[in-house]
Structure formats: C-alpha cells, structure tokens
Amino acid sequence: YLELLYWLDRFGYQGYLSLDRYPYREDPEEAIAESIQWLRFFRILLNKMGAERIEEVLRGGNPIKSSQLVREAMMQIGTP
C-alpha cells in the first residue's frame, strides 16, 4: 500500500480509493473503518518518510533499505 499511495501521489491522482474487503466473520462496518484507518496511517507514514527519501530508496532497489525506512518512520510516529 505504501508504494501504491506514493505513486498515486507522485502522479497527482485525485480520484477515489476503494477497498476490496469481504469480512465474512467480522462486522463489515468495523472492518472497513479499520481499513480506512490503516490508509490514513499510511499517508502519515509517507509524509514522515518524505518523497525525496522514498525516491532515493526506490532508486537503490534494496529491499532492506526500504524496510529500514518504513521502520524508522513508524518509530517516529508510533503504531496505529
């Protein structure tokens, strides 16, 4: 989701996002609300990482560096 949201932002996408959830065992409203909260958290996380740093890590193609970037940003803002 993080990279998807990054690219949507980078290309200026202003449309809607949809969620593909089928909560068979969970309360549907609660499940969707939780998914929306995760998307909001991912937006905060992306802002903490910064577009320049994300681009640098993506150009490097190193999944360990990507993981480190996400972890460091999460540590700055806490967990959802």
Q: What topology emerges from the helices and strands here?
A:
Elements: H1 2-10, H2 28-49, H3 51-60, H4 63-77
Helix pairs in contact: 2-4, 3-4
Key phrases:
80 residues; mainly alpha; 70% helix; globular
What can you see in these coordinates?
The protein is mostly helical. The protein has four helices and no strands. Helix 2 (28-49) crosses helix 4 (63-77) and helix 3 runs antiparallel to helix 4. The longest helix is centred in the middle third of the chain and has 22 residues, at 28-49. The chain is globular. The two termini are 15 Å apart.
Number of helices: 4
| Main sheet record | none
Number of strands: 0
CA distance, first residue to last residue: 15 Å
Task: Kindly report the average pLDDT value.
Answer: 90
Low-confidence stretches: none
| Structural class designation | mainly alpha
Oligomer: single chain
Percentage of β-strand residues: under 5%
**What Rg is obtained from the alpha carbons, in whole angstroms?**
14 Å
Shape designation = globular
SSE string: HHHH
Assign a percent range to the helix content: over 70%
In short:
The chain is mainly alpha-helical and 80 residues long. It is built from four helices and no strands.
